[in-house]
Amino acid sequence: MQEQGIDESEEWDEADATAVHAIAWLNDQAVGTGRLLVDGKIGRMAVHKNYRGKGVGAAILNTLIELARQQGHDRVTLSAQAAAIGFYEHWGFVPVGPAHEEVGIAHQWMCLELN
User: Fold this and answer.
1) Is there a contact between 23 and 32 (Cβ–Cβ < 8 Å)?
2) Residue limits of the N-acetyltransferase domain (predicted)?
3) Which among 69, 65, 90 has a CA at the least distance from the CA of 78?
4) Is the pLDDT of residue 108 over 70?
5) Handedness of CA 50, 54, 58, 59 (dihedral sign)
């Protein structure tokens, strides 16, 4: 939130209560996070800037995808920041529909079929 200038009121929502949250820890410090909503949407993916490119995001994403499979979802979706589209494409996600804006940042809906 701080790095990208997102207001805290935009980050927390009612879905937090029913989502599964994944947190990557290094020693006693949380270095990454993500969540899986009950409808199979992955969101709130974030990795501390000092730990990007070290597999933290991949570990969180793969954990959430596997959890979605275990929950019986046929697909997962996410709204990727434009700068992260390549990261998600690497894991098999494909763009769906037009680009859009969230909290002043360009995003793209993406989908991964789990079958």
Assistant:
1) yes
2) 1-115
3) 65
4) yes
5) negative
Distance CA 27, CA 98 (A): 40
Local structure of 100: helix, strand or coil: strand
Sequence letter at residue 83: A
* Residue 113: closest CA among 70, 55, 50, 68: 68
Q: H/E element holding 80? A: strand 75-81
Measuring CA to CA, how many Å separate 70 from each of 10, 36, 64, 74, 75?
Answer: 29, 12, 10, 10, 12
Q: What is the pLDDT of residues 31-52, one digit of tens each?
A: 999 999 999 999 999 999 999 9
CA distance readout (Å), 98 to 55, 77, 81, 109: 29, 14, 13, 8
